[in-house]
Every structure is written in C-alpha cells, then in structure tokens.
Specification:
alpha/beta, 11 strands, 342 residues, six-stranded mixed sheet, single chain
C-alpha cells in the first residue's frame, strides 16, 4: 500500500498511525529506491509497512525508516539517503574493507548493507550461515553494485560502448514511469509495479544461488581437490557431475589455493551424455582461453581427428580450440593430456 498524501489524511481526519511507515520520494522513481523498499517489505518488522511517497520533511520525519530522500545518512535513526554532497561511502568504507567494493552506494546498497543478511535469511532460512555469507557477497558483486553504480552515474567501462544496452533492470524500471503524455500520471501505481519487477529479479537471483550455484560449488570444489588424481600437474580437472556451472567457482578456488591460472582444461560429461574437454578461459577476457586445444586439431572431426591425434572415438574440436569432444571418458582425458604436451 502506497500513500502519497498521508499528511493531508492525518490533518483531515486526526487519524493515528497504526502501522510502520517506509518513506521515500514521490514523482519519478528509479531502480534503487524501488529495490530498497522491496527488501524492507520482506522483513518481519516492515512486512505490513505503509510506503509513504513524499518530499515533505514533516511527513518524512514521522516515518519509521526513510530511503533515497531526506538528505541524511543516519543508520541509528534509519535514514538512508545518498544524495547529499557529503556522502561518498562505499561497501568498503562502511565495512572496514571487509567488502572490497568501491562504488558509491545508492539507497539500495545502503539498505542491502544494513538489512541484506536479514533479507537473505527470510528467503533461504535453511542454508548455512557460511553459505548465506557467500551469497550475500555475491549478490552485491553481481547484482547490487550495478544498481548502485547506475544510480550514481558510474559507467561500467571508460571505453566507448560498441552498442546500446537498453534492457537493464534500471532501464526497465525507468520505463515503468508514466509517460509525459499519459492522461493519468499514476506514479504510485507504477512504483508498485517497479517494486514487483525488481523484487522478482532479486528473489530469483538469491534462490538460484541457493539451489543451483551452491550445489555446483560443492561439485567443483571436490573435483578441484582431486585434480592431482587426474593428472600429476594438477592442470586437468574432471567434474563428476557434468552440466553444472564451474568457471567462477574454479577461479575462486584457484585464488584461495594461491594457484591462479593453474588449471588449463575441464573434463566433464555434458547434459546429453557426451564427453567434453574445455579450455579454461582467462578471467575477465571474454573468449580468450588459457591454453586452447592445439591448432592442428581445430575444425577437424570424427575419424579424421582420431587418426590425426591417435586417440579413438574422437568427435570434434571447435575451430577456436576452446572445446573438444570424445565418445568416451578415457578418450577425452587423453585429449586433455596430449594437449598439455603440445
């Protein structure tokens, strides 16, 4: 429930407040305050709260919590604005460097900083604290920081974009604002839709991490720890359960083991049952592989490929050398071992 004219209602009726109130600004809305309000509404303390959209200081002063308006950041008073000139805080500055992110926070980031772990507790109560902390960190890195950056005018890159990106979450929220030529300027109704939109995406991200990302972490971690049983160099990792996402987990495990860049090939059986050897990509460099499969193998298929490299049951090697296939586990492992030698 969103109430823009709460002050007038109180003045006219003398009504007393009966529920918590979340204050934010009226008029055009953005992704950050819609997301901040959604997160708060998932918490027991604010689940039944009324959202008051106004810029009237007198009305805001009577709200229990205020986000993205008011010109002050005072967590003890539950005031979470970031527009004041004196505000320059980031996740890093407000966590004594424990969260190593240096993008200025928006109201979404501030609410996530102070209430994000409680929000995650509500969504996935049965997940261990250790894994909830991982998800909390990852949600900021791969979801929330983008919201903070866009709202504060921080570009993702200093280079000139090669094409227009128009389907971001922030862009979709912006498009929910009433058009300049709409006969009915229903900002409050559209703000509710914006909350639903951002909330569904954030909720889905958290659930996906709990139900997909964490189980994959366990699989990749076990395979990484057993890598020397596959090859004495430790440069080949074999996944016991194929089809799971592994790249980010591998990078993190390498970093923790202080052996970044060690693993060259991942071997796995994909969801169709085919065996694959995939060259590990260079982190942050798109399609660049650490050690592509040998150039002489690329683009060659089936029997011709088997004769070329002396390994039966070969299926293919991609023209770029980033992946190859064999009909058997033994065959694909031998392809990886030979590729290390060349």
């Amino acid at each position: 429930f969103i109430q823009s004219n709460f002050r007038r209602m109180v003045q006219d009726t003398g009504a007393k407040r009966t529920c918590m109130r979340i204050g934010t600004h009226n008029g055009s809305f953005h992704c950050d305050e819609a997301l901040a309000c959604f997160m708060l509404k998932q918490l027991p303390a604010y689940k039944s709260a009324q959202i008051v959209r106004t810029r009237d200081p007198a009305v805001l002063s009577d709200c229990d919590i205020v986000v993205d308006v008011g010109g002050t950041y005072e967590p003890a008073k539950h005031r979470y604005d970031h527009h004041q000139r004196t505000f320059t805080d980031t996740m890093s500055t407000l966590t004594d460097g424990k969260m190593d992110f240096h993008t200025k926070l928006s109201s979404a980031g501030l609410v996530y900083l102070h209430f994000g772990k409680n929000f995650i507790d509500e969504l996935i109560p049965d997940v261990s604290k250790e894994y909830k902390d991982l998800i909390y960190h990852r949600i900021y890195e791969y979801f929330m920081e983008e919201i903070d950056a866009v709202d504060n005018g921080v570009n993702a890159t200093e280079e000139k974009p090669k094409y227009h990106v128009t389907t971001t979450l922030g862009g979709r929220v912006r498009d929910l604002n009433p058009s300049w030529n709409d006969e009915v300027q229903d900002f409050d109704g559209q703000f509710e839709k914006a909350m639903e939109l951002v909330g569904s995406e954030l909720t889905q991200r958290v659930h996906n991490m709990a139900n997909r990302w964490l189980p994959a972490l366990e699989i990749v971690k076990s395979a990484f720890e057993n890598r020397f049983q596959v090859h004495d160099s430790g440069q080949i990792v074999k996944l016991e359960n194929g089809g799971c996402p592994w790249k980010e987990h591998l990078y993190q495990l390498e970093s923790e083991a202080k052996c970044e860049g060690l693993v060259k090939y991942m071997v796995y059986q994909d969801s169709s049952g085919a065996w694959r050897v995939q060259a590990v990509g260079v982190k942050g460099e798109g399609f660049t592989s650490r050690l592509p499969l040998p150039e002489a193998w690329r683009g060659v298929r089936d029997e011709e490929l088997s004769k070329l490299i002396g390994i039966p049951e070969c299926v293919f090697v991609h023209a770029t050398g980033f992946i190859g296939g064999n009909k058997t586990e033994a065959g694909v492992l031998e392809m990886a071992r030979q590729a290390l030698k060349l």
